[in-house]
Design goal:
about 270 residues, 10 helices
Length: about 270
């Protein structure tokens, strides 16, 4: 339900936005080349990088403790306000911190649309040669969209992709990963985005819920509530973007995902 690693979160004095989070790769295009997303500068790209303050998650932990013990969602909302506002210096900085999520969403969309890895390798051929085993399919897509590098962020991203694809098969049992409808592909991108945000939350604050819940079963239940709380807000943000009439293409999914993340974190920041 949570992540495979549980910690007390990062300490003070570290940059809130690692250098690589602002330097994201372009998604793969349908012909295997990198797609040009926009000539406009990335949001907040030129902004200075704030440093994590002392006790950055103190308010979030206090509110999460209340939620863990009682299940009162007012505590959960307060926790997310503190998490974004104080833990990450606001929605803008947290959006930058999650830049890798947006970039991976773009690559994942490109892989699902083209059936190719970023280097142009045809995934379907390799999968058919393996007997079309669903686990091989999932592994191939995960490796193509988010190659392993041993970091916590990357492992969280890879887990989120695999879980999103598994959720797709629950929602659409007959889905063909390389012939998805627009609705199915949108479902994967939205679900991946929500699960990766949840993964970041777990790396930062899962330990608080595990420690403050009355028992392990309650802790797992609370984590599920957090996951669905995030998923509902991410889905609402993507829905608003769709209602604006902005089409999702290979070249702009990264930017649309970044917009959805910013909208989600802005809502979290304004909870009281």
């Amino acid at each position: 339900m949570g992540t495979s690693q549980s910690s007390s979160g990062p300490g003070p004095g570290v940059p809130l936005v690692p250098p690589w989070a602002d330097n994201v790769d372009s998604p793969v295009s349908g012909d295997g080349d990198e797609a040009s997303e926009s000539d406009e500068p990335e949001p907040d790209q030129a902004a200075s990088v704030p440093v994590a303050p002392h006790a950055r998650f103190r308010g979030a932990r206090r509110a999460l403790g209340e939620f863990a013990r009682s299940g009162d969602d007012r505590g959960l909302r307060r926790a997310f306000t503190h998490y974004v506002r104080t833990g990450y210096d606001g929605a803008g900085t947290m959006t930058r911190r999650m830049g890798g999520t947006a970039a991976t969403a773009g690559r994942l969309n490109g892989v699902l649309q083209s059936g190719r890895a970023p280097d142009g390798t045809e995934l379907r051929d390799a999968i058919l040669a393996s007997g079309n085993d669903v686990n091989v399919v999932l592994d191939a897509i995960v490796d193509a969209a988010s190659p392993a590098d041993g970091t916590q962020d990357k492992e969280s991203s890879r887990r989120a992709i695999r879980d999103a694809l598994s959720d797709l098969l629950v929602r659409f049992p007959d889905a063909d990963f390389f012939a998805l409808t627009d609705a199915q592909r949108s479902f994967v991108i939205e679900r991946y985005t929500a699960l990766d945000v949840y993964g970041r939350f777990c790396l930062d604050l899962q330990k608080t819920i595990m420690d403050k819940s009355p028992d392990p079963a309650t802790a797992l239940r609370r984590l599920k509530e957090v996951r669905e709380f995030i998923a509902e807000h991410v889905a609402a943000a993507f829905r608003t973007i769709r209602e604006r009439g902005t089409p999702a293409t290979i070249s702009n999914v990264t930017l649309l995902t970044r917009d959805a993340l910013r909208a989600t974190f802005s809502v979290f920041e304004e909870y009281s």
